[in-house]
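In response to reviewer comment 3 from the previous cycle, which asked for concrete evidence that the modeling workflow produces usable outputs, we include below a single protein chain processed end to end. The sequence was submitted unchanged, and the resulting structure tokens are shown without manual editing.
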Amino acid sequence: MRKRALRGANIFDGTTLHAGKSVLLDGAIVRGIVSPGEIPADFDIVELDGGTLLPGFVDLQVNGGGGVMFNDVTSPDGVAAIAEAHATTGTRALLPTLITDTPAKTRAAVDAVADAIRRGVPGILGIHLEGPHLSLARKGAHDPSLIRPMEEEDAAFLCAAAGRLPNLMVTVAPENVTTAQIARLTEAGVIVSLGHTDCDLAAAEAAFSAGARCVTHLFNAMSQMGNREPGLVGATLATPGISAGLIADGIHVHAASIRVALSSKRPPGSIFLVTDAMSTVGSDIAEFTLNGRRVIRRDGRLTLADGTLAGADLDFPTAILVLVERVGVAVGTALAMATSAPASVLRDARGFGAIRKDAPWNGIHLDGMGRYRDLAWI
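The workflow returned the following structure tokens.
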């Protein structure tokens, strides 16, 4: 196997940003991050023109890509098409995300992801089921006719699915699940995330105590923080150990709100980036359908006919630029929010989210402008 030393770019290993060093690759295996004088003589030097080498992005909320919506093409081929589209933007690992749908579609989605993993589709880490056990009051673009309480059959299915997959994330609202159900799911290995909810502080804290440890797209489709009722936003920012996804497209959340959230959560890695991407990533389509409703793509927004935001027209390089240039986040922190931070939420990250010695290489290159660059040429 060819031995290469990649140099000429900064290196972010998932936690630390290194300058003036090289990554050693022995075939597809990382042999270390070393200083110039430590490059072995039998390694070929590959010069990069600046930018940053870093772990491939990890996205825990991906509804579609490449012109495909997971809800519409709920098959291993659909999963593969979505993963391929996101790979062109630097995402190397993801959770295909099913938006609120029927029980039959939910079962098909779990089967599709399990089959895709068995077939070796690159980067598929499990599945994210966003609904249907949400709040009608905070439904967003979810079909209200499909939102419902969690029943015994639902809970049993989810517990069994968690045993079939490396990771199963489920977004629920306390209005439509009980704390006993949350505890049962958590014990079975489900990553329970709160979202699309109008719950108050007490209900959020009860759900956290029962085992929920994540929040879906912080600030969006949830009870906001007020002076007398902190809501889910306040509960998330005030509760240690709770992680939260964030859509940093400059549309879903104001830069000042992101600054407040990042200053409130310690460590900063407890807030991670998601794209909440729809079928538009890796595609030039101008519109698509979601549960039979038209979604329009215009000026970086995806909306239903009534103006309701319907996912995001976003990739991670863009989100990182928003964090750095508009919010004022340090580069290393922004990169962690797209790599090691989401990986830390998972039950099994399968080695993604970090560059580690003697581990498989899953890295990517961002140029000096923050744009994704394919490393296939090396």
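The chain has ten helices and 22 strands. We consider this sufficient to address the reviewer's concern, and the full set will be provided in the supplementary archive.
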